[in-house]
Design brief:
The protein has seven helices and four strands; from the N terminus they run βαβαββααααα. By secondary structure, the protein is α+β, with helices and mostly antiparallel strands. It has two domains: 74 residues, Glutaredoxin; 107 residues, Glutathione S-transferase Yfyf (Class Pi), Chain A, domain 2. A four-stranded mixed β-sheet has the order 2-1-3-4, with helices on one face.
Length: 194
């Protein structure tokens, strides 16, 4: 059976699941779910994922799984995208948790408001902008020391964090201010074939 990935291609959270599956050469069918048209709120979708969010995946055994990082971890189990050394694996988890709490809520939300709701960058909440830049500074600090977030090779942490970082400019964040981040985005895009 082939995986079924339900996602909206406007969403970095959805794309990172798609890129993980592609990187691992897992066969899947992509089912586009337009969140702007409330397609994740239909009765059929809610029966599969009561949270009404994308991405969601129907696995080979028929089980349904939601939450982008949980899906990525499940798909990549046993692969080189998850470090085998316990400390490196823990660092990858650290970045995954940080991404959902300290990066996505600012960088992705600014992008959504500007690119999809048409809000001028000048009207974004200053705290949102400040915290978005703070997240990019945190990435810049790490990436001046290592080519990837957990060291010398690509992990799920890079896939998770590149999803919204690569389009941060759509939310008013100038990546030229973060040269190590910009170079890392290029490396990850090449590694993923984007």
């Amino acid at each position: 059976m082939t995986l079924r990935i339900y996602g909206d291609t406007k969403s970095g959270n959805c794309l990172k699941v798609k890129w993980t599956a592609e990187c691992l050469h897992l066969p899947f069918n992509w089912i586009e779910v337009d969140i702007m048209k409330s397609e994740s709120r239909t009765a059929d979708f809610l029966a599969m994922n009561p949270a009404g969010q994308v991405p969601a995946v129907i696995l080979d055994d028929g089980g349904a799984l939601a939450q982008s990082n949980a899906i990525m971890l499940h798909l990549a189990e046993g692969s080189t995208l998850i470090p085998s050394a316990p400390f490196e694996r823990a660092k990858m988890y650290e970045w995954l948790f940080w991404e959902q709490y300290s990066h996505e809520p600012y960088v992705a939300v600014a992008r959504f408001q500007v690119a999809y709701l048409g809000k001028p960058v000048s009207e974004l909440d200053p705290k949102l902008v400040e915290r978005g830049h703070g997240a990019l500074i945190r990435l810049e600090t790490q990436l001046t020391h290592t080519p990837y977030l957990v060291g010398e090779r690509l992990t799920l942490a890079d896939i998770a964090l590149v999803a919204y970082t690569r389009v941060a400019h759509e939310g008013g964040f100038d990546l030229s201010l973060y040269p190590a981040v910009k170079a890392w985005v290029g490396r990850v895009e090449v590694a993923l074939g984007l």
